[in-house]
Design a protein that fits this description.
The chain is of the alpha/beta class and about 325 residues long. The protein contains eleven helices and twelve strands. Helix content is about 40%, strand content about 20%. The chain starts with a strand and ends in a 17-residue tail after the last strand.
């Protein structure tokens, strides 16, 4: 019996962004330079496949600096950390390397600048996300207030009615949802200061735009990523809101919901910013085992951004 035919549409851009690529390189180069083990506080990026590959090379992932023994290098994850973390490392005389994405560091600097100008700061983001914890931890507790939804924005009460307001955003949010939250804040506080350059990073914006386009051409979308990855979860939501009748997250090819795939003729595939291209290839190959497939790439933009490594890891 002949296999059914399916059309696979691959979103471009997809997968690794420059910040994730840099963070992984930092761990790999630290292992090359200092030897195993190299400790990493929290997952370097939100992807188990990446983390497990680095563990095989000698990286040890821990929750807190208290789990790190003496005299070993420690790396801070791409999501950024509160000021208390490097302060603790310095107090313990630890050798640490900060792999915070430069675009997250930009938000940290904005927070410091606004605080120096005595402005009251609103951060749009998700409670408990490592990036949000890191950004709020740039300043003493209470200096930054978190807003998650339009409703939060409509009910926000400034601590000081005399102070000027400014907002910042997590870098991995839904572009459309954030626009609605910002609009609600601007309606209530017309003079609220906005970031000079959009805080939502180029990779998040580009991947969401690619998924919107993808959704116009397929019955279902699979997002390769991790449930704790904010940018990956937003891609699932964006596909649904763009009118795709089926959208789901898969971490590996083993997660593909084949019963749902049977109902789709054209399937869109993308990957979150912390998911490597090997996982895309793995998913495509799994489809090839089940169906006759054609593969087409839908490109909405091209990315050529790279970030420098920390000077301590640059080749001499």
């Amino acid at each position: 019996m002949a296999q059914a035919t399916k059309k696979l549409l691959l979103a471009a851009p997809r997968g690794f962004c420059a910040g994730v690529d840099r963070a992984i390189q930092i761990v790999e180069k630290a292992l090359d330079k200092y030897g195993a083990p190299v400790y990493v506080r929290h997952e370097i990026v939100h992807n188990r496949y990446v983390v497990e590959n680095l563990e095989k090379k000698g990286a040890v992932f821990v929750d807190e600096l208290s789990d790190v023994p003496e005299n070993v290098p420690v790396i801070f994850s791409a999501h950024g950390v509160a000021k208390s973390v490097p302060a603790e490392a310095e107090q313990r005389k630890m050798f640490y390397i900060d792999a915070t994405c430069p675009l997250v560091s930009k938000v940290h600097r904005e927070a410091e600048r606004h605080d120096k100008d005595n402005m009251e700061i609103i951060l749009i983001g998700h409670t408990g996300h490592p990036e949000v914890i890191g950004t709020m931890g740039q300043l003493p507790e209470g200096r930054i207030q978190l807003v998650e939804t339009v409703e939060d924005a409509e009910n926000f009460v400034p601590n000081n009615n005399e102070a000027e307001l400014a907002y910042l955003t997590q870098t991995t949010l839904s572009v459309d949802e954030t626009r609605d939250i910002v609009a609600a804040l601007q309606k209530r506080f017309p003079n609220i200061a906005s970031p000079k350059k959009e805080d939502i990073c180029y990779a998040t914006t580009n991947r969401q735009a690619a998924v919107k386009e993808l959704a116009q051409h397929c019955d279902g979308v699979l997002v390769i990523g991790a449930p704790n990855s904010s940018n990956s979860m937003r891609l699932v939501e964006v596909a649904q809101k763009a009118g795709c009748k089926f959208s789901d997250m898969v971490q590996r090819a083993t997660d593909i919901p084949w019963d749902r795939m049977a109902e789709c003729n054209a399937i869109g595939i993308t990957a979150g910013a912390s998911a490597p291209e090997e996982l895309v290839e793995e998913v495509v190959e799994a489809f090839r085992q089940h169906y006759d497939i054609t593969v087409e790439e839908i490109t909405t933009s091209e990315e050529h951004i790279t970030f420098k490594l920390p000077r301590v890891l640059e080749t001499e």
